[in-house]
Amino acid sequence: MARQDPKKDVVIVGLGWTGAILGMELAEEGLEILALERGPGRETVPELRYPEMIDELSYGERHKLMLSPRQSTVTIRRNLQETARPMRKWGSFLLGNGVGGSGVHWNGQTWRPQPVEMQLRSHIRENWGEEIIPEDMTIGDYPVTYDELEPCFDRFERVAGISGIAGNINGEIREGGNPFEGRRSRDYPMPPLPLTWNGVKFSEAARAMGYHPFPRPGGNASTSYVNEYGMQMGACNFCGFCERYGCYQYSKSSPQTTILAALFRKPNFSHRSGAEVLRVEMAPDRRSATGVTWFDEEAGEEVFQPADIVILAAYQIENTRLMLLSGIGEPYDPVSGTGTTGKNYAYQITGSTSLFFRDEHFNPFVGSGVNGACIDDFGMNAIDFGAEGFIGGAYISSAQTNGQPIRSMPLPDDTPQWGAGWKSAIAEWYGHEMSISHHGSVMSYRGHYCDLDPTYRDRHGRPLMRITFNWHPNELRLNDFLRGKIETLAAAMQPDLVSHSYKEEGAQYDVRPYQTTHNTGGTIMAATPEGGPLNRYLQAWDKHNVFAMGAGAFVQNTQYNPTGLVGGLAYWAADAIRRQYLPNPGPLV
Amino acid sequence: MMKTLFRILAALVLLAALAVAGIILIPVQRTPPSEALAAGWTPAPGAGEYAMRAGDCLACHTADGGADFAGGRAIESPMGRIWTANITPDPETGIGNWSLDQFRAALIDGLRADGAHLYPAMPYENFRMLTERDIRALYGYFMEEVAPVRNPVPEPELPFPFNQRWGIRVLNWLTLNHDSGFTGTMGDPALDRGQYLAEGPGHCAACHSPRTVYMGQDGITADDPAFLTGGHIESWEAPPLRGPQSVLREWPVSELAALLATGRNFRTTANGEMRLVVEHSLQYLSQDDIIALSRFLKALDGQPHDPPEAVAPMGPAALMPPEADAAGAATEALLSAVSPDMPLGARLYVDNCAACHFSTGRGSPEIFPALQGNSLVVSDEITPLISIILDGAEVPGTAARPMPLVMQGYAGRLDDAEIAELASFLRRAWGNDAAPVSADEVARIRREDRPQTR
User: What residue stretches are annotated with the Glucose-methanol-choline oxidoreductase C-terminal domain (chain A) (predicted)?
Assistant: First the structure.
């Protein structure tokens, strides 16, 4: 018999970016809120403190901040015929854990989607006709437009403290920014960080080829920053320990630096760590939720937490799993194409070229998570899908995020992997390499989806999430197109040596090497209940008091890092709950 | 001859004995109210709690982990250890049986209900300036709004003669001869309000004024030339708040107000006892009062004191870290060059400190304090600096700046010789000019009880 705790107005599952945002927005309504976080509590000091944090073996290699696969993991297969196997060590992506969620260990790269990405199917229909869309591609329009979300993007960028330079303010194209971006109502709240030498070189070469380079926007502070809650960041020092690490000096945008201490002061908000939510409980008529059942790590027992509103604010994978485990939306069936929960899982495609210069010193240990120059000349809105034979786009950038010795030792092709030859190559080439990479969109397909694994279960006996995903010829053609652009750019820079890392034709998804933690879809938003389990306000169509945040709502992935859209959608949903749902609880559409 | 001498001696002894007997036995006088309030006068709701915050009663009268106001916090006075009193309305161990007159006398005469003298760790010299309205509000608050807690507090651990409370009576004849109550002298109601907060409840002079030879505050009111010209509290230097040595000269009113309200401003953060003052007292004052207090301090020093529009306004705001100035240029060049043969202290700075405090030594506004010109870094009192390097520092979160700013300690990472090199570097870098620190001094501070910096 589960323990039952006193009722709350709102229970929030997961205390990362979206849990913190929803917590703050709803706390300002005076609601009694409890946030339940699966992992441990984390503060800058002591958990993220210097110098313990900059331990590459513990955090970079052994993923000390991440979810332990032993606690929960996912199973992966590449098609419907394969048997999925559990990931026992993270590779392709890293699942966060603990207060702050993935907002603790991300790089900070923050973009908005392009307006055409939000209305992608319409964009294609109007320009080329739907017949260019492959038969198995299940892309759609988001049921909300860029213009509707613009104030929400702006709010997130101001709360999170984003550095950058606007390229388009209310339609006016501005020198130095990204001229291909959607309109912004105003500039970023902080100026961009200075570029390291690789970024300067890349920008010069790109400009000479007629492209439009700009510094990457993101959540590494370029100045001291104070946000609307009085929360603070200090200027980044380019220590080169962002991704996989917590920032020991308050310079990276995170729930810790921008929301949590202000939220924790609110008497009507409380949170528990070591609190893994097992399922959402339903009323007898199954038209609304009554609360959640969670496992109290400290007491070693299950607890029922009654609540009027349930906010699913876990990562895309756990949100999808909780919805499947709790019967929210119909499970998606890839054979019949019916059902919605689990549909349209997507990812990100990347590839890169390394440039080696004997006489250049890049000092790779000087880096930050967002550091880099970018071009968006091959983005979604700049590509003729009909002529190129694929649907997608990418930004191209030269990043320098770190020079960490275990994992960041780029060497020319044919260098021995160990021994004297490897050592002498390190001595010869460390610090003489820069890279140019692309970060491309991945469309949604009928056979790419999430469901409950039939075999593998977690320690609570719940099925693991099973992901079925593979590279599709559409993305491999995009990748090949971008490779050509990058190699031309690289050649113009006249390096002494180059090496390439791209997926080849026919490549299959490999879960071992790290790629991106940009898993999307599964709980997509849609204009009708047949299209996806969530409506345009991220409200479950069939359970009016359940809202699900995060990149699970992405109809298809965009060409950008997802956090800007995740943050924007969170404010969009919070506004709908505050202004529409609370005065009149029920379906908002 | 011998007989005469004996008689004189005997007479002197008798006189002395009579004097002592007088000091001990003549009943103490309780100062009457400074204002006769109308019958039926009652304080506004919340006024008592607000006056408690302004007087910072909670910080001293609460032990770590103890109940609010139940006393038992150790105060290390120059004469020995004193435990603060239980001021909850518990009738046996607190002040539940005290009359208003007894309560007032504690504040303005330094007298217990039984007539015994309080040790001057209780700032009754300053509370003597409290208005009768605030005293009445405080009395109502402690009697009616604070929960009684039974908590007996030990007697002070003082050697003879300091354990003789009657001796304080002599001290009070020397120090406690100013009028009770408050009359502003700044010629402006807002500045007078600031003066009241500083002189009376805020008891700034208790730390920031020097002490006379007989341990009284040298400078209790704005008229005294030594008022707030700098003092000491335990091992901390309480820097001067006026005069050419005062860093406040370089701060606009808005930045002084920000430090008081949030423990952080464009140059520095509150450390030591001041951190506790921000945490328990100043962050609860109204914006108007913080501005009044800040303006008064600037006006007292003859500096411009136009009121700012707001104290520590909410963002979004991007605040650019300052570039190195002329005095700091050479040090910045040394640190930026990171030559392999740079001095050990400078190298330790690069490896451990520069991330936040930067090679400019000027930090980043509102979050990383500047070390250039930092009074704590260059103080003759080295214990706070060494303690912060060992244990770290923490600025509490406040309503306007909720994030606690925590610096981690380096006790486990740097040895005594390294900390001495590092501290000596800091004390000479960017134009700082203070004496070096030795490894022996660091070893002593590491070994001994040192002030809590977090």
Answer: 457-567
Domain membership flag for residue A493: no
For residue A440, being part of any structural domain is answered with no
- Chain A interface disruption, residue of B353, B364, B389, B413, most A CBs within 10 A: B364
SS (H, E, C) B382-445: CHHHHHHHHHEEEECCCCCCCCCEEEECCCCCCCHHHHHHHHHHHCCHHHCCCCCCCHHHHHHH
| ipTM entry | 0.92
Residue B91 belongs to a domain: yes
| Sites in chain A below the pLDDT cut of 70 | 1
| Predicted local confidence at residue B26, as pLDDT | 73
Q: Are B232 and B151 in a shared domain?
A: no
Judge whether A303 and A3 are in contact, CB under 8 Å.
Answer: yes
Residue A499 maps to a domain: no
Residues 6+ apart with CB under 8 A from A63: A90, A94, A244
From the list A45, A234, A261, which residue is nearest B367 (CB)? A234
B188: left (phi over 0), alpha (psi -120 to 50) or beta: beta
Do B149 and B214 belong together in one domain? no
- The DSSP code for A331 is B
- Give the CATH number for residue B416: 1.10.760.10
- The minimal CB distance from B364 to the residues A43, A234, A257 is found for A234
Among the listed residues B165, B93, B180, the one whose alpha carbon sits nearest the alpha carbon of residue B132: B180
The amino acid present at B365, given as its one-letter code, is P
- The answer to whether A123 is a known catalytic residue is no
Helix B287-300 vs helix B253-262: angle between axes, to the nearest 10 degrees? 130
Query: Quick one: B168 and B212 in the same domain?
Result: no
Mean pLDDT by 10 residues, chain B (454 residues): 76 75 74 94 97 96 95 86 95 96 96 92 96 98 97 86 77 82 96 98 97 88 96 91 94 98 97 94 97 98 96 96 96 96 97 95 96 95 97 96 96 97 98 98 94 87
| Closest CA of chain B from A540, distance in Å | 34
Q: Do A228 and B316 touch (CB under 8 A)?
A: yes
From chain A, the residues in CB contact with B335 under 8 A are none
Task: Check residue B329 and give left, alpha or beta (phi > 0: left; psi -120 to 50: alpha).
Answer: alpha
- Count of Cβ atoms closer than 10 Å to residue A83 Cβ: 10
Pair B245, B331 in one domain? no
- Domain hosting residue A20, numbered range: 1-163+217-347+518-589
- pLDDT computed for residue B1 by the predictor: 63
User: Which uninterrupted H or E stretch holds B14?
Assistant: helix B2-25
Type of residue found at B324: A
Q: Domain range for residue B337?
A: 326-447
The reported pTM is 0.95
Q: Does B17 touch chain A (CB under 8 A)?
A: no
**Structurally, how many domains does chain A consist of?**
1
Verify that B223 and B330 share a domain, yes or no: no
Which of B300, B317, B350 terminates a domain? The answer is: B300
Cα angle A233, A238, A241 (rounded to 5 degrees) comes to 90
User: Edge-to-edge, what's the strand order for the sheet holding B317-319?
Assistant: A232-233, A224-226, B317-319
Question: What is d(CA A404, CA A416) in angstroms, rounded to the nearest whole number?
Answer: 19
Distance CA A432, CA A358 (A): 6
> What CATH number has the domain bearing residue A332?
3.50.50.60
Alpha-carbon distance B99 to nearest alpha carbon in chain A (angstroms): 36
B58 lies in the same domain as B168: yes
Q: What strands, in cross-sheet order, belong to the sheet with A433-440?
A: A214-215, A372-375, A394-399, A433-440, A349-356, A497-501
Residue in this structure with the two tokens 């009694």, named with its chain if needed: A32
Report the domain count for chain B: 3
**What is the pLDDT at residue B449?**
85
Domain boundary among B232, B265, B300: B300
Question: Looking at residue B142, what DSSP letter applies?
Answer: I
Q: What are the pLDDT digits (tens) for A166-179?
A: 999 999 999 999 99
